[in-house]
Structure of Transmembrane protein 225 domain-containing protein:
Amino acid sequence: MVHVSNRSIQGMNILLSSWVVVLTVIGVTLDEWVELISEDEGIKINHSPWMTCCPAVWPEDDLQVVRIMMMSILGLSFLLNLILGMKFTYLIPENKSLQLFTAILSFFSGILLLWALMLYHNKLKHGQSVHFSSYRITWIMNTAYLNVFFLSVCGILSLLECKLSTGSCTCLNIHTSDTECKESENSIEGTSLPEHAAKPRSIVRAHTVNSKEDILNKQVQTRRVTWAL
């Protein structure tokens, strides 16, 4: 059976959340998410959901919702990485509530990112029939889907960490109760009477037996004296 410690899980969480932040920042700085091909001239134009000023082949207001969702994902990714880093460096205390919060935050960020990407794909398909002839997805779009996987793994690791910490607390309580039972047994044995406490009874009994024998001897001697007389 493979034993996984909480520190290794926390390290994996920080690594994955850091990659999410790095890949998201790369997606913000680069505009080559897709290549839009115009109908008339066949010109290739780079496009991304982060662009505030869209080209003429695609109206700007058509991607405002996707852009807001991507900004929210960027903020949530920074928040998740910050919480995991502070927890790893013991700047904030570890508890079950914090672990559940990081798990929920990871799953929510992953679902929101997947929703934004699906909405962006839908906008691309709709724009293909209206504003441009075709489009081609680049490697940056694939890194966004990779971020969805990383966020899902972060959520699973947070749940596993919560389960391990709960199990260790249960084992600690069982060990503490066993120790208390042993201490109570030792205290009961310490308060029991020692072995030499039964000796006075034997002494009393021996004394009574000796006194009875002395009386019999005196009676025999008296009878002998009376017989002699």
Summary: Residues 6-165 form a domain with the Butyryl-CoA Dehydrogenase, subunit A; domain 3 fold (CATH 1.20.140.150).
